[in-house]
Write a structure and sequence with these properties.
This protein has 2 domains: about 1-105, Tetrapyrrole methylase, N-terminal domain (Cobalt-precorrin-4 Transmethylase, domain 1, 3-Layer(aba) Sandwich); about 110-230, Methyltransferase, Cobalt-precorrin-4 Transmethylase, Domain 2 (2-Layer Sandwich). The chain has 7 helices and 10 strands. The strands form 2 sheets. It has a 5-stranded parallel sheet, with helices on both faces. The protein has a 5-stranded mixed sheet with strand order 6-7-10-8-9, sandwiched between helices. About 25% of the residues lie in helices and about 20% in strands. α6 (about 170-175) packs antiparallel against α7 (about 205-215). It has helices at about 15-25, 60-70, 90-100, 110-120, 150-155, 170-175, 205-215, and strands at about 1-5, 30, 50, 75-80, 105, 130-135, 160, 185-190, 200-205, 220-225. Bound molecules: S-adenosyl-L-homocysteine.
């Protein structure tokens, strides 16, 4: 049996109760060492075999899993944040299916949720944006043209950009070319929820300069949108003049 476990965004106590239990029960743990906080391995059984997937190929990961299965062992595949976001899990699921190996998935706190906590922000502010776009700049992975940052920027929705610190100058240029105003609020959150988390608030026009001045080149999210500003509408749900299934409107 293989359990894909979301490690959470960094802090060791942000893994789910289920994820921590699965780690404690695993015979074999394959963790994404480039991003997962190594402190999480303290949840592992002292006899568990540990493998850092940062130095492995998909084929090598699968070979470890197959060997564990042959011995009736339980494997945890520990991915950073939640494995559904840039987790490269689908290819693993499909290979496991083909090999007839049972697996399940335990969600985790994605870094975009960790970043919201760090910023004390709400991504879906009434009167500002009710849509969150999660995307990235093209890297080794190509972006379909209709999903270019330039094209997505036109929606004026809340934007959360992963995996883009290495091309922050280009990201800034794409946002501006897509019609986002220079003074639109933006933020860079480095290592959200880790002990050395850093939060930088800036504008779209100063994104690259902010990253450069603070030496942020990886392990950070770029957040863009009016949700980082000060004006919004209050919620209808908690408004005295609004009836809900649970509460009548005040006269
Ligand atoms: N599955 C992960 C994302 C993996 S892609 C998740 O749900 O968070 C790796 C990228 O995620 C990094 O380049 C960075 O952009 C972002 N990231 C991961 N952990 C982060 C953290 N604690 N703080 C800020 N960004 C983080």
């Amino acid at each position: 049996m293989v359990h894909f476990v979301g490690a959470g965004s960094g802090a060791v106590d942000l893994i789910t109760v289920r994820g921590a239990r699965l780690l404690g029960e695993a015979d074999v743990i394959i963790y994404a060492g480039s991003l997962v906080n190594p402190g999480l391995l303290a949840y592992a059984n002292k006899d568990a075999e540990l493998y850092n997937s940062a130095t492995m190929t998909l084929e090598e990961v699968m070979a470890i899993i197959r060997a564990a299965e042959a011995e009736g062992k339980t494997t945890v595949r520990l991915h950073t944040g939640d494995s559904s976001i840039y987790g490269a899990v689908r290819e693993q699921f499909d290979l496991l299916e083909a090999a007839g190996i049972a697996y399940d998935v335990c969600p985790g706190v994605s870094s975009f949720c960790g970043a919201a906590a760090a910023l004390k922000a709400e991504y879906t502010l009434p009167g500002v944006s009710q849509t969150v776009i999660i995307s990235r700049m093209a890297g080794k992975t190509q972006m379909p043209e209709r999903e270019s940052i330039r094209a997505l920027a036109g929606h004026n929705a809340t934007m959360i950009l992963f995996l883009s610190m290495g091309v922050i100058g280009k990201l800034q240029a794409e946002l501006l070319a897509g019609g986002v105003a220079q003074d639109t609020p933006a933020a860079i959150v480095y290592k959200a929820t880790w002990p050395d988390e850093q939060v930088y608030r800036c504008t779209v026009g100063t994104l690259a300069e902010t990253a450069q001045q603070n030496g942020i080149t990886r392990l950070a999210l770029v957040l863009v949108g009016g949700f980082l500003g000060h004006s919004y509408s209050r919620s209808r749900l908690y408004s005295p003049d609004f009836s809900t299934a649970f509460r009548g409107a005040e006269p």
